Amino acid sequence: MAVSETVAATPPAATPTPPAPSRRRRGRNAAYWLYLLPGALLFLLVIGAPLIGTLYLSLTKWSGIGDPRWVGLDNYQQLLQDDVFWASFRNTVWMLVAMVVVPTLLGLLLAAVLFDVIGRRFKPRTAAALRAAFYLPQVLPVVVAGIVWGWILRPDGAFNSLLDTVGLGALRHDWLGDPGTALPSVMAVMIWVQIGYPVVVFMAALQRVDPELYEAAEVDGATWVHRFRAITLPQIRPETFVVALTCTIAALKVFGPIFALTRGGPDNATNVPSYFAYYTFFKKLQVGYGSAISTVLTLIIVVVAGVFIWMQARSERRDRGF
Amino acid sequence: MAVTLTPSTAPVAPRRPVRDRHHRGVSRWVVLALVTLGALVMLVPFAFMLLNAFKSPGDYSSGGPLSWPTEFYTKGLRTYWTEVNFPLKFWNSALIAGSVAVLGVAVSLLNAYALGIGRVRGRLWIVGLFLLANMLPQEALIYPLYYVAKQVGLYNTQLSVIIIFTVIQSAFGTYLLASVLSTFPRSLLEAAALDGAGKWTVLWRVVFPNLRPTLAVLLIFFFIWTWNEFLIPLVMLIDNQTQTIPVALASLQGDRLMDAPTTNAGALISLVPAILFFLIFQRTLARGITAGAEK
Predict the structure, then answer these.
(1) What proportion of chain B, given as a percentage, has pLDDT over 90?
(2) Is there a contact between B35 and A287 if contact means CB atoms under 8 Å apart?
(3) Which of A228, A245, B16, B291 has its CA 20 to 30 A from that of B137?
């Protein structure tokens, strides 16, 4: 490699050279750019260029055939008056509840209970088995989960039969077909899908925590709730940030389950921006309008991610006492 | 590498139970019962799946979804297997996920080597860009990708999906590995440089062996994530020859062929590869999640 020759050609390494002259240092580091080259090219090709393409298309009217026609900000103006667009973002807020808020809180509690109570008062194997049960839905391709749940929640599906069996037949319902129950049903499915992820991450995080902290607290007579708040929560805060961020991004982007469960219906009751964009691109063939939806979604995600990372950086700084 | 963990709870154990019996004899059983109940609720859909995958359509229509099957019916499974050409779909999924896992890890490693060890200028911005790229909604990329793929003849090929996901996954991998590598012990690098090793040699002889556990985890993540991906394969792969398992199953939804037993049978076999993979690599994963969380 040419790179290694350059380094080998600098003989005076025999004496431990004190701070390397800055010019040579920069020269040495420049060689590392070569390693970034393949990744950067691929990145530009698959992410950079298409992103700019979508941005451009959002300012045009285009059916995918012929030439796009420049319309300026028309698509965005139209978006602001589009009820479906607003409905899809309202539903996203509910997705955030189902995919971030509930799983993170429930996951913290479950992980702490599994690790602290069940893992230590019973056999660790018991905790591991229970953890696996909670994690199993995460292994299932999310679309397959959607298809199975779609069948379970059908009018003649397993859930209604279950209600019959336990004597609650009066509650039989077309869970996904009724605009009133479709969104709560989808939310329940998403909680089921999502819960395993925080449980596993938080349990792994808890292994990092010094057991002596808990023992000391126990000796001091702290209750489980006290220990949870004073030790568990602060100790695994980095992981909590990561989980909350990744789940938030996933909730903003959710597509597969909606596609498999309801296709956004009935009557847009479960439509979300990503499905709305997909539908506009490939079913209605309004590429410009679809691009505008995607661009707005992208902006929201970028802002949300920025806020998260800023908050995390701030809390880390505070921890270090600045 | 910060993969050292699980201070085994064994040494602490002996002292504990004696005292705990007084403290929380009953409540711990209540907690166990509650959590077990929750875990069982989680498993109910899988039970439904198993119960109905081996039931004949006649059985299903007379007994409903909760009845015990009167015979062990495998025709639904076989119908799905042959009609969908499951082996081919499996091969497509495995080919795509496997290639992406390997290529994605390779690209991540090269990127992270330049960013974490090489510390090239502006690396914070570059890492931020990669992180952002991983978060982008795929809708923001899909139409131009779809259009260009059609123009250059990559549409409806596994290669198109492999290329796209290699980049998307390696965006995350670069972010993770760059932060792991920025704490790589400088002394090791300097020692190798004193021995006259070039950057390429250092990468493969010093950095790679030390990073192997993390790379293994990344490989598994990339594989599972790609295996489960939906939108881009749905748009890019349109016929029976190229589709992946999730896309094939979804495009059969509502099809006459897919009565309830067949749907369940289909879901069940789609689940098997993922579960096998999960069981095989569970240990690596449990270790790796912590490795990823270390800074």
Answers:
(1) 29
(2) no
(3) B291
Which domains can be identified in chain A, with CATH numbers? Answer: 18-46 (no CATH), 82-319 (1.10.3720.10)
CB–CB contact B136 A148 (8 Å): no
- Determine the residue of chain A that is closest to B114 in CA distance: A32
Identify the residue whose tokens are 């702290």: A222
Other CB atoms within 10 Å distance of the CB of residue A151: 23
Burial of B23 (0-12, 13-18, 19+ CB in 10 A): exposed
pLDDT at residue B140 tops 60:
yes
Task: Please tell me the pTM assigned to this model.
Answer: 0.83
pLDDT confidence of residue A203: 86
Q: How far is CA A238 from CA A202, A277, B5, B222, in A?
A: 10, 33, 17, 23
Preceding omega of A266 cis (within 30 degrees of 0): yes
Split at pLDDT 50, 70, 90, the class of A16 is very low
Specify which of A121-130, A196-205, B5-14, B18-27 reaches the highest per-range mean pLDDT: A196-205
Q: Is B137 on the interface with A (CB under 8 A)?
A: yes
Chain A CA closest to residue B193: A7
User: Which architecture characterizes domain B78-293 according to CATH?
Assistant: Orthogonal Bundle (1.10)
pLDDT digits (tens, 9 = 90+) for B77-108: 888 888 888 899 999 999 999 999 999 999 99
Q: Which residues pair with A69 in a beta bridge?
A: A61
Give the tokens for residue B26: 């009953």
User: Please, are residues A104 and A202 in contact by the beta-carbon 8 Å criterion?
Assistant: no
Between CA B75 and CA B162 the distance in angstroms is 34
User: A317 near A95, Cβ under 8 Å?
Assistant: no
CB contact A62 to B (< 8 Å): no
R_g of chain A, CA atoms, integer Å: 26
**Residue B227 confidence (pLDDT) above 50:** yes
Which residue, B135, B137, B151, is CA-closest to A291?
B137
Q: Which residue has the tokens 């959590």?
A: B35
B120, A32: Cβ pair inside 8 Å? yes
What mean pLDDT do residues B113-142 have? 88
Could you say which residues from 16 to 55 on chain B have a Cβ atom under 8 Å away from some Cβ of chain A? 16-17, 20, 24, 28, 31-32, 35-36, 38-40, 42-43, 45-46, 48-49, 52
CB contact under 8 A, B66 and A161: yes
Strand partners, A61: A69
Of the candidates A39, A49, A134, the beta carbon closest to that of B144 is on: A49
For residue B198, give the nearest of A35, A40, A36 by alpha carbon. Answer: A35
SS3 content of chain B, % helix, strand, coil (to 5): 75, 0, 25
Locate the domains of chain B by residue range: 78-293
Nearest-CA neighbor of B259 among B112, B110, B60? B60
Closest Cα in chain B, distance from residue A239 (Å): 7
> Which residues in chain B have their CB less than 8 angstroms from residue A166's CB?
none
